[in-house]
UniProtKB/TrEMBL annotation:
InterPro entries reported in the protein's UniProt record: EXOC6/Sec15 (IPR007225), EXOC6/Sec15_C (IPR046361), EXOC6/Sec15_C_dom1 (IPR042045), EXOC6_Sec15_N (IPR048359), EXOC6PINT-1/Sec15/Tip20_C_dom2 (IPR042044)
GO CC aspect terms: exocyst; plasma membrane
Name by which UniProt lists this protein: Exocyst complex component
Pfam family membership, one: Sec15_C
Keywords, in A-Z order: Exocytosis, Transport
Biological function: Component of the exocyst complex involved in the docking of exocytic vesicles with fusion sites on the plasma membrane.
Organism: Zalophus californianus
Domain Exocyst complex component EXOC6/Sec15 N-terminal: 50-219
Length: 803
């Protein structure tokens, strides 16, 4: 019962689940089915039974539904089969009808198409005629453009393009050929620009190659114009009686001959000298400028032209490394620069805006700075004055040429003043060698003259005036040596050479006079003075040569006034002018004389030292020889002969040399007595030494050089005389008693000197003490010496303490 009760309870639940399964979506079946398994045991089996029963019910219902509609389905199928037969009949009829219509309309269609085609052709022909009448002018103009391009008439071609674009193309702009033409015009313009630019590049290359020829032609023309102006000025000066400064080395007649020859050469070469237009075809520049102007790109062309010309300017301004070696290197450099700026000046005047005055001035200032730097650097390597002079002439022609084209050249003339200083330096170096050669070839002897002809030759070379010499009969001698007229001539040659550089510098006569005098002063004070000093200091120059050098400098000094007159005659500037520079020959030759005098004193003392070194005294002799030493007599004889040569010197020089020699001899003899290596001196040696000093005093008293007053020369030996008298007389008591008194008999004897000599004599006495102890006089003398030595030492020590 219980089981039956349970079964009855589950049946409604299964029905509900089946209803949910039928009514819900299959995605939600899972939870519903899970509830079947969650119920009581055997529920699954019961559910399956219930599910089978439900399925059977549905099958029955489906079967009933099919049975109900089956007859209607069969009737519909039967009707469809009847309609298919009728449709097939209808299709056959329609197809047949269509075929008959097609066959009937074929002829009409053909005729209609022919009519349509004819009318279209007629309309097209009319349209084509109209359009061709509109296009023919365009095509004719375009054909004309092509012909102009082929004929290289680019400027006309650009004008034709403007007409095509502004007038003709707007009429036919709808056609493709017009678009092609329009698209082709920019390409044609670019082709024209490229061709024009190529012509311009060829032109630039051409003027770069011809710039030296252009510059050479321009410089020739400027030089000829200058020659003509100078000739005209000279004619005017002669006409109005003006005095023209003429280089007296080149006569005026010679200048006129050379000028005439220059004009003749000018006439001969007149046909050969071409203008810049003859040498260069400027048409590419004009064409290119017009083309770029038409294209509205004139600024681009100007910038390109200026940029390329600046590059060419830098190349032209770059010199060759060996330019300074030859004048041709400088000439090529100048002609290229002149050619460059002549072309620029021509472009400036024949074109508008391509180059401006401001541009050319900027380019010239840049070039001028570079030119000056190059010339300053390369001219510094020039050591040949002739090359420097040729460089100066080239710079002058270069400056005059460019000045004629309107370029400022003042800085070039300022540079010439720097080069002038360098030119003077090269001249000074050259003349230093000339002076050295003259001094080397000179025999330093008075010039001998045997007849009047030789006398006139010397006078013509050197302005010498001496009435006494003129009165003398032949043969006779000039006091100076052969180097004096040669030096005078070379100084004049130097003035000529310096004058050459001053010409054509556009300077006044006053400035030229000042330049000549300053350069001559440099020659005298530096070059000639240095050569004289070097000559004086040479070891092989002896006393006789030094005496002649002093005489030579005296005459050269006197000739300086004639050199001033010589410069005055050249420049026509009076020496009395306030700003006129004076020649410094007086101080130059005076310094050389002083150096020669000093060298005479030095060499004379050296010669005395050589004789003194030959002295061979026996300092331990007991008795003197009774006569003066041989070396001293030779020395005195040498001095007598030398002082005879000094008679040609100024008196003061000879007296100073004589006094210096005596003082040096006195000092040398004193040093010989006091020599530290000399340890012992006997009384016999002192007596022998006294004989030598007596000969020196006799020599001094014989007045070897005139002009000394009284015994002035003998005072050179006063120190030796008083010292020797003190030892010869042995008057030590008087010396010690009167020491320090102004009236002392031995005022010139120094205690140190006396002590040194006395100690040497004391040592000699000790050496001979073995024999002296048997002689009472010798013993007394020895004691006296020791006593005097002690007193002298105390006197010397007192002097040291006082000091």
């Amino acid at each position: 019962m219980a089981e039956n009760g349970d079964g009855l309870g589950t049946v409604p639940e299964h029905e509900r689940i089946l209803q949910e399964i039928e009514s819900t979506d299959t995605a939600c079946v899972g939870p519903t089915l899970r509830s079947v398994y969650d119920d009581q045991p055997n529920a699954h089996k019961k559910f399956m039974e219930k599910l089978d029963a439900c399925i059977r019910n549905h099958d029955k219902e489906i079967e009933k539904m099919c049975n109900f509609h089956h007859q209607g389905f069969v009737d519909a199928i039967t009707e469809l089969l009847k309609v298919r037969t009728d449709a097939e009949k209808l299709k056959v009829q329609v197809t047949d009808t269509n075929r008959r219509f097609q066959d009937a309309g074929k002829e009409v269609i053909v005729q209609t198409e022919d009519i349509i085609r004819c009318r279209i052709q007629q309309r097209n022909i009319t349209t084509v005629v109209e359009k061709l009448q509109l296009c023919l002018p365009v095509l004719e103009m375009y054909s004309k453009l092509k012909e102009q391009m082929s004929a290289k008439r680019y400027y006309s071609a650009l004008k034709t393009m403007e007409q095509l674009e502004n007038v003709f193309f707007p009429r036919v702009s709808q056609y493709r050929f017009c678009q092609l033409m329009i698209e082709n015009l920019p390409k044609l313009r670019e082709d024209i620009k490229e061709i024009s630019m190529s012509d311009l590049k060829d032109f630039l290359e051409s003027i770069r190659k011809h710039s030296d020829k252009i510059g050479e032609t321009a410089m020739k023309q400027a030089q000829q114009q200058k020659i003509f102006s100078v000739a005209l000025q000279k004619q005017n000066n002669v006409k109005f009686g003006k005095n023209v400064y003429i280089n007296d080395r080149i006569p005026e007649e010679r200048n006129e001959v050379e000028l005439k020859r220059g004009f003749e050469e000018e006439d001969e070469n007149e046909e050969e000298i071409l203008t810049v237009q003859d040498l260069v075809d400027f048409s590419p520049v004009y064409r290119c400028l017009h083309i770029y102007s038409v294209l509205g790109d004139e600024e681009t062309f100007e910038n390109y032209y200026r940029k390329q010309r600046k590059k060419q300017a830098r190349l032209v301004l770059q010199p060759q490394s060996n330019m300074h070696e030859t004048v041709d290197g400088y000439r090529r450099y100048f002609t290229q620069i002149v050619g460059f700026f002549v072309v620029e000046d021509h472009i400036l005047h024949v074109t508008q805006g391509l180059v401006t005055r401001a541009y050319t001035d900027e380019l010239w200032n840049m070039a001028l700075s570079k030119i000056i730097a190059v010339l300053r650097a390369h001219s510094s390597y020039c050591t040949d004055p002739d090359l420097v002079l040729e460089l100066k002439n080239l710079i002058v022609i270069f400056a005059d040429t460019l000045q004629g084209y309107g370029f400022p050249v003042n800085r070039l003339f300022d540079l010439l003043f720097e080069i002038r200083d360098q030119y003077n330096e090269t001249l000074l170096k050259k003349w230093a060698g000339v002076f050295r050669d003259i001094f080397e070839e000179d025999n330093y002897s008075p010039i001998p003259i045997v007849n009047e002809e030789e006398y006139k030759v010397v006078i013509s070379k050197f302005p010498f005036q001496d009435p006494d010499l003129e009165k003398q009969s032949f043969p006779k001698k000039f006091p100076m040596s052969q180097s004096v007229p040669h030096i005078y001539i070379q100084v004049k040659e130097f003035i000529y050479a310096s004058l050459k550089f001053s010409e054509s510098l556009h300077r006044s006569s006053t400035e030229i006079d000042d330049m000549l005098r300053k350069s001559t002063n440099l020659l005298l004070t530096r070059t000639l003075s240095s050569c004289l000093l070097n000559l004086i200091r040479k070891p092989h120059i002896g006393l006789t040569e030094l005496v002649q050098i002093i005489i030579n400098t005296t005459h050269l000094e006197q000739a300086c006034k004639y050199l001033e007159d010589f410069i005055t005659n050249i420049t026509n500037i009076s020496q009395e002018t306030v700003h006129t520079t004076r020649l410094y020959g007086l101080s130059t030759f005076k310094d050389a004389r002083h150096a020669a005098e000093g060298e005479i004193y030095t060499k004379l003392n050296q010669k005395i030292d050589e004789f003194v070194q030959l002295a061979d005294y026996d300092w331990t002799m007991s008795e003197p020889d009774g006569r003066a030493s041989g070396y001293l007599m030779d020395l005195i004889n040498f001095l007598r002969s030398i002082f005879q040569v000094f008679t040609h010197l100024p008196g003061k020089v000879a007296q100073t040399a004589c006094m210096s020699a005596c003082q040096h001899l006195s000092t040398s003899l004193m040093q010989m007595l006091l020599d530290s290596e000399l340890k012992q001196i006997s009384m016999g040696a002192v007596q022998q030494f006294n004989l030598d000093v007596i000969q020196c005093e006799l020599f001094a008293s014989s007045e070897p050089v005139p002009g000394f007053q009284g015994d002035t020369l003998q005072l050179a030996f006063i120190d030796l005389r008083q010292l020797l008298d003190l030892f010869m007389v042995w008057d030590w008591s008087t010396y010690l008693a009167d020491y320090g008194q102004p009236a002392s008999k031995y005022l010139r004897v120094n205690p140190n000197t006396a002590l040194t000599l006395l100690e040497k004599m004391k040592d000699t006495s000790k050496k001979n003490n073995i024999f002296a102890q048997f002689r009472k006089n010798d013993r007394d003398k020895q004691k006296l010496i020791e006593t005097v030595v002690k007193q002298l030492r105390s006197l010397v020590n007192g002097m040291s303490q006082h000091t």
